[in-house]
Amino acid sequence: MEAYDTGSDARQGRDGQDGPAGPQGAAEPPGGPDGTGGAVPAGAPRTGVAALSPRYQAGAVLALAVVAVAVCAHLGLVFLHVAPSNTLTKQHGEAVDEWVFPEFEQNWKLFAPNPLQQNVAVQVRADVSQADGAIRTTGWYDLSAEDGRAIDGNPLPSHTQQNELRRAWDFFVSSHDSDNRPVGLRGTLSETYLRQIAVQRLERNDAAGEGGTVERVQYRSRTTNVKPPPWTGEKVSDRPAYRELPWWTVPRGGAA
Q1: Nearest-CA neighbor of 150 among 140, 141, 135, 160?
Q2: Residue 123 shares a structural domain with residue 191
Q3: Cα 125 to Cα 199: distance, rounded to the nearest angstrom
Q4: How many other C-beta atoms can be found within 10 angstroms of the C-beta atom of residue 169?
Q5: What are 174-187's pLDDT values in tens digits?
Q6: Do 142 and 73 reside in the same domain of the chain?
Q7: HSE-CB for 30 with a 13 A CA cutoff
Q8: Fewer CB in a 10 Å sphere around the end CB: N or C, the chain?
């Protein structure tokens, strides 16, 4: 008599190899028919937004929608600011300028045929009233150098350190003539913006000292030419040029 290993035949059938079940008898992938681990247990914890209650889920969706609308509106206004004159900018140009200036102003100097070839350092000093009533004038604080030191070696410098002072000074220069007189309605706004920056920076440097109060501030710029490459043969002056602004009175509570 010929012996048969029925247990082996049964195993082969279950494994879908040589048993009676053949290819249709192939074993299912581990964890369920779809190979993804099977059905999620009913008591498994939820994560992410799904873990929130319906009320908070609605709040999260609403917050995302508000952020998306704000970003689209901002990008649209900035686009209108840099776009050529059109019907929308003619009708709503004032609203666009109110949103863009001064923090979000754009310019094309990097791509100009004759890019900026000067280093401009913005400096400020103050008249400080001391506790005994005397008035003391501080030395010049080089605000551009302070920003430069904060940026140098910093892989992720802040937008404020890179652009706040530089754009504020460009805003002032573009809205004033060579005698520092405002040209157009934005001149006063640029002065107010610069004065607020001066008060904040002087307070950060403790310029007033203990018991002192900043009464007036004065700006000046120190401009030096960037040396051209030797192969150009071009000669430029290495002497700095200064532009000194008038004294501005700081309103009470100006630091705030």
Answers
A1: 160
A2: yes
A3: 10
A4: 22
A5: 999 999 999 877 89
A6: no
A7: 0
A8: N
pLDDT in tens, 200-215: 999 999 999 988 999 9
Confidence at residue 16, expressed as pLDDT on a 0 to 100 scale? 46
The domain in which residue 139 lies consists of: 110-150+159-229+237-249
Question: Residue 220 burial (CB < 10 Å; 0-12/13-18/19+)?
Answer: middle
Report the number of distinct structural domains present in the chain. Answer: 2
**Quick one: tokens of 82?**
């840099």
Alpha carbon distance 143, 195 (integer Å): 13
The Cα 235–Cα 139 span in angstroms is: 33
Chain segment 217-249, per-residue pLDDT in tens:
999 999 999 988 888 888 888 899 999 999 999
Report the chain's C-alpha Rg in angstroms: 35
Return the axis-axis angle of helices 87-100 and 54-82, rounded to nearest 10°.
Answer: 110
How many angstroms separate the CA atoms of 18 and 9, rounded?
Answer: 8
- 78 Cα distance to chain centroid: 14
Residue 81 lies in a domain: yes
Strand blocks (E) in 130-212: 135-137, 141-142
Stated pTM of the model: 0.57
Question: Quick one: which of 223, 221, 173, 214 has its CA closest to 193?
Answer: 173
171, amino acid identity? F
Instruction: Name residue, tokens 């700081």.
Output: 250
Q: Which two tokens stand for residue 147?
A: 């920003």
What is the β-pairing status of strands 248-249 and 213-225?
antiparallel
